[in-house]
Design goal:
alpha/beta, Rossmann fold, ABC transporter ATPase like fold, 3-stranded antiparallel beta sheet, 15 strands, 39% helix, globular
């Protein structure tokens, strides 16, 4: 434990953590409070019993209290405040969360909506609120509640600026600022601004074309039909799943849908992925409760492409993660000037001694500790942020040093290495997933979750697939414009055409309508979810009267047919 606390190495921390386990406190049995406190009850419930409830259950519990006399006089105002705050959380689509849910387990969208609910309760006016994609992780059913909350904040005298890609949010807004026309160095201009109707009429706005339907993500002319090969998860019962048996057809694009908290991530990320990782790759992951999984013989590999960062330090970047930097360093080592000086591949790494700037150890900046304030990073005075020493930077290819290449965008690097197949192939995969604008040496810590996920996808695309691989993606459309979603779907289609299976946990209807097969969970979130409501092609889901996803899917399918 002492070594774990003292080490600064992420690798060492990971190594030591394999020998540690978390166990329940034997004194309080995980309840965290003394017995004396737990003997205080309201309507036969202790404070731990209440905090173990979901927000919806707690809301109903508080509103169901019929107090009279002195009890009513004492508690009436308190109950009103509690009820109001729980009501705000319900209205932003968080009714499935338990009150004692730990902060680190919340998604970014959930955390943001909890903070939003606290602001709604304050009833402040004259405030400027800035929200970054509050619709992340929200089903269309819950998104409507969120929009009502945002309109309420506006109506009482506040201003809201929302960075968003959701079509419904754009159409319900009062003013849109459309930035583009492309991404990265191809963007940075205001293409159009005005009301939603004005944006739709502006021919320069790609967003406007998608809002009007002039541009759209098309439904496949013919969906791939399921074959005789299936993966079957038998009697899954982790968290809120109610002993369900889910069948996943092989070789298709499969969407797992349902309202927030319905059990989608539990089924796929806590049961299917770890179970297959343990079986196929000897992983040590914990597997959620289920009886068995049938059909494993149809797979030889499973890849979970999540939104976790591709690295924890600025040293990690897209070039190193996708391995394209290895090929670039190989190429630089073969240049005539490199051979003349005896430079090897390692000379062009900023992680090892030799070619890197030793003043900053290849970081390109120096950390200045401010003690009671946040650390300040200043460019290295020796290398001026270039990360390599002067002798290394003297070696150039088409007037580009190794440092200059790290500063290029993907599309610029592709033009430079157009005649080098290995390098070009990896850069092509980054462009295929819509990342032509990112810089090769961009620090991993500055990448969004969606960008990190697509970099991981590009890395896998650059490898040779076996045709028997299962890919899992959790909300890959996070942070994506309509145009980027269309690019992503082309890439996923390539994977399934090669015989691979792709499972997507998703709320985006444009993605769901293009899926070959849907597994819809619900009907609600939390304890009211965990059941399979409908499964089959999108057209079958759209006809289900029990499915909220089907209700919204029917509208979009009918609209596209027209």
């Amino acid at each position: 434990m002492r070594r774990y606390r003292e080490t600064q190495s992420e690798g060492q921390k990971k190594y030591y953590s394999a020998f540690m386990t978390a166990s329940t406190c034997p004194a309080c049995q995980g309840r965290r409070l003394k017995n004396e406190v737990l003997h205080v009850h309201i309507h036969k419930k202790s404070i731990v019993d209440v905090t173990a409830m979901t927000i919806r259950q707690a809301f109903d519990f508080v509103n169901g209290m019929n107090l009279i006399g002195n009890k009513k006089l004492i508690a009436e105002e308190l109950l009103k405040e509690i009820s109001d705050r729980l009501g705000f959380l319900v209205n932003v689509g968080l009714d499935y969360l338990s009150l004692d849910r730990s902060g680190p387990t919340l998604s970014g969208g959930e955390s943001q909506r909890i903070r939003l609910a606290s602001q709604v309760g304050s009833e402040l006016t004259g405030v400027l609120y800035i929200l970054d994609e509050p619709s992340i992780g929200l089903h269309q059913k819950d998104n409507i509640k969120l929009l009502h909350t945002l309109h309420h904040l506006r109506d009482i005298g506040n201003t809201l600026i929302i960075v968003e890609h959701d079509q419904e949010t754009m159409e319900k807004s009062d003013w849109i600022v459309d930035i583009g026309p492309g991404a990265g160095h191809l963007g940075g201009q205001i293409v159009a601004q005005g009301t939603p109707d004005q944006i739709k009429e502006n021919p320069a706005s790609i967003t406007g074309k998608f809002l009007t339907g002039k541009e759209r993500i098309e439904i496949p002319e013919k969906r791939k039909s399921q074959e005789s090969k299936w993966i079957t998860i038998v009697r899954a019962s982790e968290n809120n799943l109610k002993n369900i048996t889910a069948k996943i057809p092989m070789g298709l694009l499969v969407a797992v849908t349902g309202v927030s908290g319905a059990g989608k991530s539990t089924l796929i990320n806590q049961i299917l992925y770890p179970a297959l990782a343990v079986k196929l790759h000897d992983s040590k992951l914990n597997v959620g409760r289920h009886d068995k999984i049938k059909g494993l013989s149809h797979l030889d590999k499973i890849i979970n492409i999540n939104q976790k960062p591709i690295g924890r330090t600025p040293r990690s970047n897209p070039a190193t993660y996708t391995k394209v930097f290895d090929h670039i360093r190989d190429f630089f080592a073969l240049l005539p000037e490199s051979k003349a000086r005896g430079y090897k591949k390692g000379r062009y790494s900023f992680n090892v001694k030799g070619g890197r700037c030793e003043a900053c150890k290849g970081d390109g900046h120096i950390k200045v500790e401010m003690h009671f304030l946040a650390d300040v990073f200043v460019p290295c005075e020796v290398c001026a942020g270039k990360r390599f020493n002067r002798a290394t930077l003297e070696i150039t290819y088409k007037n580009h040093s190794i440092s200059d290449i790290l500063g290029l965008s993907v599309v610029q690097a592709r033009e430079l290495f157009i005649r080098h197949p290995k390098i070009k192939h990896i850069l092509d995969t980054l462009m295929d997933v819509g990342l032509s604008y990112i810089k090769l040496g961009q620090a991993a810590t500055t990448l969004s979750g969606g960008e990190a996920q697509r970099i991981k996808l590009a890395r896998e695309l650059a490898k040779r697939d076996t045709g028997e691989t299962l890919y899992i993606l959790d909300e890959p459309t996070t942070g994506l414009h309509f145009q980027d979603v269309r690019l992503l779907l082309k890439v996923l289609s390539r994977l399934t055409k090669a015989g691979n299976t792709v499972i997507i946990i998703e709320h985006n209807l444009d993605v769901i309508k293009t899926a070959d097969w849907i597994i819809d969970l619900g009907p609600e979130g939390g304890n009211s979810g965990g059941e399979i409501i409908a499964e089959g092609p999108p057209e079958k889901i759209a006809e289900s009267s029990k499915s909220y996803t089907g209700h919204y899917l029917k509208k979009i399918l009918n609209c596209d047919e027209k």
